Amino acid sequence: MGFYRYVRNPMYVGFAVGWIGLWVVFGHANPRVIAAVAAVALGVHLFVLLYEEPTLRKKFGADYEEYCRNVRRWWPRLRGWDKS
User: Fold this and answer.
1) What integer best gives the mean pLDDT of the chain?
2) pLDDT interval class at 49 (50, 70, 90)
3) CA Rg, the chain, in Å?
4) Contacting residues for 80 by C-beta, under 8 A, at least 6 apart
5) What's the CA gap between 44 and 52, in Å, rounded?
6) Dihedral of CA 39/41/42/47: which sign?
7) pLDDT of 1 above 70
8) Average pLDDT over residues 1-16
9) Does the pLDDT at position 32 exceed 90?
10) Fewer CB under 10 Å: which end of the chain, C or N?
11) Is the separation of the CB atoms in 7 and 75 below 8 Å?
12) pLDDT greater at residue 27 or residue 62
């Protein structure tokens, strides 16, 4: 399962962390860009909540529900979840 053992959406989280890192290193964040990124982040969150997760629940049922109970959507776990 790789990174999915730690967080349910590692690609989105990695992308966000990368952009935050670039802003810290290069210091080019301005209010308009921050507002635009916040709007995109809200859009991604709503997409995950309203489309992606319901689709996965329909496809995988109880297994996905168990996964959701054990792995957070956005904030990574310190130790990877191991379904035993």
Assistant:
1) 91
2) very high
3) 15
4) 1, 5, 6
5) 10
6) positive
7) no
8) 91
9) no
10) C
11) yes
12) 62
Q: Which two tokens stand for residue 61?
A: 């049922």
Q: Is 81 left (phi over 0), alpha (psi -120 to 50) or beta?
A: beta
- The whole-angstrom separation of Cα 7 and Cα 24 is 23
CA 15 to chain centre: 9
61: left (phi over 0), alpha (psi -120 to 50) or beta: left
Q: How far, in Å, are 22, 70, 72, 75 from residue 4 at the CA level?
A: 24, 11, 10, 12
Tokens representing 68 are 């959701």
Residue that has been written with the tokens 């210091």 in this structure: 27
Q: What does the alpha-carbon distance between residue 33 and residue 23 come to, in Å, rounded to a whole number?
A: 11
For residue 37 the two structure tokens come to 């990124």
* pLDDT computed for residue 26 by the predictor: 85
The amino acid that residue 20 corresponds to is I
Token digits of residue 11: 């690609």
